[in-house]
Amino acid sequence: EPKYIIGADGTNSTVINCLNIKKKAWIGHVKSFEMSNLNLKYSKYDQLFMGEFAPRSYAYIFPLSKTTANIGVGTIFEKENLDDLFEAFTNVPFIKKQHENRKIISTTGWIQGICPR
Questions:
Q1: Each residue of 75-101: pLDDT tens digit?
Q2: Which of 50, 62, 85, 114 is the most exposed place for a label (fewest CB within 10 A)?
């Protein structure tokens, strides 16, 4: 069994509902922007990152087109500073190349995550 499950499909997660888990759920936090004018390396694939730039968190690039994507970091640990995590993630050289000339279209902010144990 997995230790953690991320239903990355919004606050009213279909993933979590389909699993029929009746455990306590936590609302997590995401710092995320829809951006345009991007130079996406993989415009047909979602990119999910975990690493030193975001301890106990995750980061992502979800392409919407060849030049537009949702880019963000998320965590269910409230003590994390999302501004710092987002800054560290977007300064990773491979990531920075993809968004150097970005234009922010909109922001997003809430996720639902559960820990079934």
A1: 876 556 888 888 999 999 999 998 988
A2: 50
Q: Tell me which residue has tokens 């306590």.
A: 24
The per-residue pLDDT for range 58-76, each reduced to its tens digit, is 999 999 999 999 999 988 7
Buried b (16+ CB within 10 A) or exposed e, 10-23: eeebeebeeeeeee
Closest CA to 69 of 40, 101, 92, 109: 40
DSSP category for residue 55: T
Q: What does the block give as tokens for 116?
A: 């079934």
User: CB of 3 within 8 A of CB of 56?
Assistant: no
Give the three-class secondary structure for 17: helix
Bridge partner residues of 101 (DSSP):
none
Question: How far apart are the C-alpha atoms of 70 and 40, rounded to whole Å?
Answer: 11
Helix (H, G, I), strand (E, B) or coil at 93: helix
Task: Report the sign of the C-alpha dihedral through residues 39, 110, 8, 114, in that order.
Answer: positive
Beta bridge pairs of residue 59: 49, 73
